[in-house]
Amino acid sequence: MPLSHSLLRRQALRVVCGGAAIAMASLAFHAPQAAARTYPDKSVKIVVGFAPGGTNDILARLIAAKLQDKLKQGFIVDNKPGANSAIGNDFVARSKADGYTLLVSSSGGLTANPVLMKNLPYDPVKDYEPIALLGSYPLVVTVPASLPVKSFAELVQFSKTAKEGKLDHGTPTTSFVLAAETLTAAAGVKFNHILYKGSGPVVSGLLGGEVQVGVLDSPAVIAQVKAGKLKALAVTTGKRSAALPDVPTIAESGHPGYDIPIWTALLAPKGTPEPVLVKLRAAVAEILKEKDTVEKMQGLGLDPGDADSAALARRISGDIARWSGVAKTAGIKPE
Q1: CA nearest neighbour of 63 among 54, 75, 49
Q2: For the chain, does the N or the C end have fewer beta carbons within 10 angstroms?
């Protein structure tokens, strides 16, 4: 029995639609691979949530220059300071997930902000694709050269004679507040925390007499310490810093077991194509092993990281849990 014209048209339409669906599926499958082959074909923005001068900015500029050489496109650092780096972090979380907007974030922005800030606009676990741990480093208990103390023990005694029993502590980020809280809890003193928009401004505050102490990232203070303008009293890691070998650890200063490193990571918005992430991870992994990169980082007191994105994801979740415990013990509530 011959088919009607309408039935023939419907069958033909199904064939055409089926072919179109297959073609679209094929395009969807191959598009990320094509993107990876051509990526990057324009400049890439690396957002830092702090003012210039601190570790995150220093590392971002080092990695940006290396990526530019390796991938033959511009990698531009864009500082967006404010709100404990939440402004910059949120900007990236909301950016197009195409690999052209990346984030260099402190561990504080990813793991302390969720503990200390109400209504945080981004989720460190759900909103990013981990690319690489760029480096870890100690914090340095730092004071102006004019402050009449020569050790952490002397700083503790000096703080007890300060107005209201507290020294003004300049801090660029929430994780440094929590690290300082664990430190003062061990020593039996308190600091009056004053928030700045980056480690660079805190260093200026120390030099200008605005604050008496800063528990700061080593790259931000090494130059001023070596110039004699600031004094380094102790480092927060379990071992001494190769960049400041004469500075004792907090553990050596009378508080055994104290060991708090800080770290910096490179991330992309959630949903960035996996082939693009693979390309970035491979490039950064190579960069972090290059001799001149290692030498530059170690000269700043940094231990180079790696591009183990799964380990970085675990570290983010684990540190959020750790800082939650510290905040609870210290009676610190989100604000």
Answers
A1: 75
A2: N
pLDDT per position as a tens digit, 241-276? 988 999 999 999 999 988 888 899 999 999 999 999
Q: Same domain for 143 and 280?
A: no
Cα angle value 255/260/263 (rounded, 5°):
165
- 104: enclosing H helix or E strand: strand 101-106
Domain containing residue 153? 138-235
Q: Do 153 and 231 fall into the same domain? A: yes
Number of domains in the chain: 2
Does residue 37 sit within a domain?
A: no
Q: Long-range contacts made by residues 208-211, C-beta under 8 angstroms, separation at least 24? A: 209/144, 209/146, 210/168, 210/170, 211/167, 211/168, 211/169, 211/170
Query: Would residue 23 count as lying in a domain?
Result: no
- Residue position matching structure tokens 């939650």: 324
pLDDT tens for residues 291-334? 999 999 998 888 899 999 999 999 999 999 989 988 888 788 88
Structural domain contains residue 39? no
> Are residue 110 and residue 150 in the same domain, yes or no?
no
How far CA 72 is from CA of 38, 248, 286, in Å, comes to 11, 43, 15
136 contacts 260 by C-beta, under 8 angstroms: no
Domain boundary among 184, 219, 235: 235
Closest CA to 312 of 122, 111, 173: 111
Rounded CA separation 73/76 (Å): 10
- Would you say the C-alpha torsion 50, 82, 173, 216 has a positive or negative sign? positive
